[in-house]
Specification:
504 residues; alpha+beta; Heat Shock Protein 90; five-stranded mixed beta sheet
Length: 504
């Protein structure tokens, strides 16, 4: 077996054309394969089972052998009793003892006189077995002792009731050497039979495992290698028709995994293209924002008091837009940026968020209110990113048709819990499972789904969570988003570039 190549493995090498390099079956692999290990374990377990079963089997063999000898002894005694003369001669005694294969035969019965036949006095008895008192376990122990521990020329004394007459007691003195030879011969036959059964069982198990498990696992391995080399190509393993076991489930799960990975690769390519476009747009937008800042500088010197008062606020909004544009470009290019964690005074922070929303939606009759219920004066987080999340949620509420939005903030579990509740039409059921997935969770026809996706990434980077608690499409229940924001430790530099979520 160790010198031949597994045909299953050869077929796997032929079919894996997408693999980087074909793999040959080596003798060591054949010996350590799943089927080979199953074969070895099957042989081992069957041999162990046979060894356990052999212990009582040896005791039963010894019991049967000794009972046969007792029957022969009783027959010898009855033969002697049938003779015309009660005094046996030496020749007859020897023939009877040879028939029993014993050195002594003694017969005792309540209604008959004791009768003893022997070859010579002074027989050396090494061990005695009383079949009337010795059970199967004791006989098994005696059997092993006879096989491995008897002295040359030692005799075995056996006492028991005659199988032909329960009232008759027979005593025999037997040669242990002969019983030992017969017992070893029996053991050899049992061992040979056990080895044959174990090998046959192991071979059947080897073939069954090769057909039921190894072959589909090899097909699964080939499919995984091909997918690893060319994940963009549609080349999934065929389904195991009619299989509802673990192998069939593994095939189905692998196919689902391939589809998920392939979709992720497609999305990453789309994000890469989007990043290129965003970078180009950002370049032009920064130029426009720079021009706008120059205009606001001139507006601040206007003689019109209203224009002069609005200019600083407009300049602040333009600077925040420029910063946000730069952050978006970094996010698309490099992923989620490092948190710029700082200690934020909560009331002015939330007041600033409300003011910006009211500037945007107030003229349209939209109402936003702030409900404060916290005893924290400050908390460590990235104010720009958290403001980005809140404004995105508030904008989504008004864009979805809400007329009134409540922003609720309360201290809870050492951190801050923020809820955004609106009286809008709610979130469609079809959008809920993918609400925070890029390009999938948008509830608007023109939306990309990046807003809530980015919001989830920002909150998770703070070590918090964001979820849709409930939504009512009939307007009877407010649509509520909840943000759980724990304390976030600053980085060493104080700039927040190394800020990590953690306990305060």
């Amino acid at each position: 077996m160790s010198t031949t190549e597994d045909p299953q493995e050869r077929s796997s090498d032929r079919d894996s054309g997408a693999a980087t390099s074909p793999r040959r079956t080596t003798p060591s692999r054949v010996l350590t394969g799943l089927s080979a290990r199953a074969l070895a374990l099957a042989v081992l377990f069957v041999l162990l089972a046979e060894a356990v079963l052999f212990v009582p089997s040896a005791g039963r063999w010894l019991e049967q052998e000794l009972n046969d000898r007792l029957s022969d002894g009783h027959l010898a005694v009855r033969t002697l009793e049938e003779l015309p003369s009660a005094m046996p001669n030496d020749r007859l005694t020897t023939e009877l003892l040879d028939h029993v294969d014993a050195g002594l035969v003694a017969f005792r019965s309540p209604d008959r006189p004791k009768l003893v036949l022997f070859r010579e006095p002074g027989l050396q008895v090494e061990r005695s077995i009383d079949l009337r008192e010795t059970g199967l376990l004791g006989l098994s122990l005696h059997a092993f002792q006879i096989m491995i521990g008897h002295q040359p020329g030692a005799m075995l004394r056996v006492v028991g009731l005659s199988p032909a007459d329960p009232n008759a007691e027979i005593e025999l003195v037997l040669d242990q050497a002969r019983i030992c030879l017969e017992l070893r011969s029996y053991t050899a036959r049992v061992a040979a039979l056990s080895l044959f059964i174990s090998l046959a069982t192991g071979l059947l198990l080897y073939l069954a495992l090769g057909w039921l498990i190894v072959r589909p696992v090899l097909r699964l391995t080939r499919a995984m290698r091909a997918f690893a080399d060319h994940p963009e190509i549609e080349q999934t393993a065929r389904r195991e028709s009619g299989r509802s076991d673990e192998i069939g489930d593994a095939f189905n799960q692998m196919q689902a995994m391939q589809e998920t990975v392939r979709a992720a690769l497609t999305q990453n390519r789309r994000l890469a293209s989007l990043g290129t476009g965003v970078a180009k747009i950002s370049h032009d937008l920064r130029n426009l924002l720079t021009t706008s800042l120059l205009i606001t500088d001139r507006m601040s010197a206007s003689k019109d008091e209203g224009v002069a008062k609005a200019a600083p606020r407009l300049a602040e909004s333009i600077e925040r837009a420029a910063t946000l544009t730069h952050t978006i470009v970094q996010h698309v290019r490099d992923g989620m940026p490092a948190l710029a964690v700082e200690t934020v005074v909560l009331k002015p922070f939330f007041g600033g968020v409300i003011d910006r929303i009211r500037q945007r939606w107030g003229p349209q009759g939209k109402v936003v209110s702030l409900v404060e219920d916290f005893d924290l004066s400050s908390l460590a987080f990235d104010p720009l990113q958290i403001e980005r999340v809140l404004i995105n949620l508030l904008d989504n509420s008004f864009e979805a048709g809400a007329d009134k939005v409540d922003l609720r903030a309360e201290a809870r579990d050492g951190g801050l819990t923020i809820r955004v509740q609106d009286d809008g039409a709610g979130v469609p059921d079809a959008a809920v499972p993918h609400l925070f997935d890029a390009f999938k969770g948008s509830t608007k026809r023109s939306g990309t789904g990046l807003g809530l996706h980015n919001a989830a990434e920002i909150i998770q980077a703070h070590g918090g969570s964001i979820e849709l608690l409930h939504t009512g499409q009939d307007g009877t229940e407010p649509t509520t988003f909840e943000i759980r924001l724990p304390e976030v430790r600053r980085g060493r530099s104080g700039s927040g570039n190394s800020g990590q979520p953690g306990e305060a």
